[in-house]
Amino acid sequence: MPKDAVIKQMKNSRVTAISMINLRALAGLQNINEMLKQNAQTPWGNRFGFLLVPIPIMGTLKNPLEFMRRIKGNMDKHKISLGMFITARLLRYLASLKVPRAVSRPSYNVITNTTMMISNMIGPVEKIVMGGNTVKSFSFFVSGVPQALQVCIVSYMDVVVLQVYAHKAYVDANIMSDCFMEGFEEMKKMAL
């Protein structure tokens, strides 16, 4: 399907992304022995939350750089909000009851009512070696999610890689990637 046809088809669509947010109090690498202690400042295990992000359809966005600034500010506010803290505590409490359905059902309901998932991982700035072999690059994606579209962003050695995973019946991944690249180029021009 040509790009113009895709944009025309999506003009009246409403796209909402779910973004995974790291809720750890401390950034960076932590000593694993410290994390395993009883009352550790940053305990072992995942600490994450979800944030719903409305995504504008290409052609409806006047200033992509301003949109990114607004979304970044919004995400930063939500990360430290009382709502995010209460939700994380509630999910942790439900998980402690050892009733998987108590945690999985509300999480699944939120996830299934979104169009796409966005996830990112900040990788190391230095070269890493595994088993005597230098790691040239790596990627990841979240499997088993109901969204037909995923955007995963990973950085490693100051190089950022954007990956688009799309179900063929939903959207053409190549067109979607082109749209992202156009948006990035526009933002780059505006920023310079």
From TrEMBL:
Classification via Pfam families: WS_DGAT_C
Gene Ontology cellular component terms for the protein in this record: plasma membrane
Family matches, as InterPro entries: O-acyltransferase_WSD1-like (IPR045034), O-acyltransferase_WSD1_C (IPR009721)
GO biological process: triglyceride biosynthetic process
Segments traversing the membrane: none
Domain O-acyltransferase WSD1 C-terminal: 44-188
Domain of life assignment: Eukaryota
A GO MF term: O-acyltransferase activity
Official protein name in the record: O-acyltransferase WSD1 C-terminal domain-containing protein
